[in-house]
What we know:
alpha+beta; five-stranded mixed β-sheet
Amino acid sequence: MPDSHRRRVVCATAVFLVAAPAAIAPPSAWIVALVAVLAMAVAILRRPLGTVSPVVAAGLVAVLSVAADIGYLGREGLVLPWFPFEFASMLVLVGRVIRRANVRRAAVVGSTLTLALMALPLRFTLRLPQTVLGPSVVAVAMAMFPAACAVGVGLYLRANDDRRVRAVQRARREQRLEVARDLHDFVAHEVTGILLEVQAAQVGELDRSQVEELLVRLEEAGLRALDSMDHTLQTLRDPDAPAAAETPPTRVHGLIDLPELVDRFLASGPVDGALELEPGLAGSAPREIEDAAYRVVLEALTNVRRHAPGVGRLEVEVVRADGPALRVTVTDSGRRGGPGGLGIRRTGDGGTGLAAVAERITALGGDLSAGPHGQGWRVRGVLPLRPPASRA
């Protein structure tokens, strides 16, 4: 049975049971029964008054309840049969309005409901044969406790809902940043390589075999860029899918992928270089540590392509350090001549790659430094071989 249909059945049954005694009651009691029935309907149904919002409907219940307190002209005993139902319904409405309404409506309607709830016992005590202030004070004081509980529950649930919303927003922001980092790290790396290959081909005279080799490298780089974009788009298509800790939203690389990365870089231009990867180190660190180390090398190589493609020598070193830690160092010897870099005009300031990698490494408890080294440039990242406890 659908939830909406179930609610209507429950509401109809409750209304019948509560309104039935009014059939044998004097007409003066009908207003009391009507307010109780309306309060129950608003508490049970999502939209009992059609297009009227639940918050407005709850406010209407509060106003009618106060009006009944003032305008009831019947005997005091006729109030009691419907009192528990109206009181319980208004408790539910207080908690619901405070939890779900916006701040202004929650303050106005919630306060009105709370005051109407505490004034509800006065409908009986002020009509006693001997009007004494004491019973009214006691009755209002007794009504204050459940009213305060309803307000407290509503505020507590509202705070939980706000925390949950903020957590979802933070998760989505982190996912967007992860997608942006992925696009920058992998797609931009391959596109930069393609542009430099094309520029080199324009200024050089290539024979047929060299052209074929160039086209093969361009095709492979384009396929790798498309593959990275496919992973990114797959994440964007289903942003709300629950991702387990072992299933990251973007592709994860490790130290075992470094030889292929460095070989591709060395094959794309006339540069000498070497990768020193300590034996047995690949696969020994947590995967987020290895992925961060891979991105340090990737970003360093991308910057060499962009700003100093004419370097004479490039050295990549990945070794264990004291801590225990993983030390990743990428050092180039500097340009052999000419300005180097991409010879095309690019909009935007750029320069966010190293900053993003530094944020990633800092979050893992490591450190990243970059600066001049001799005639060239050096990028060094130090990562703990165990991630912080908050990310474990």
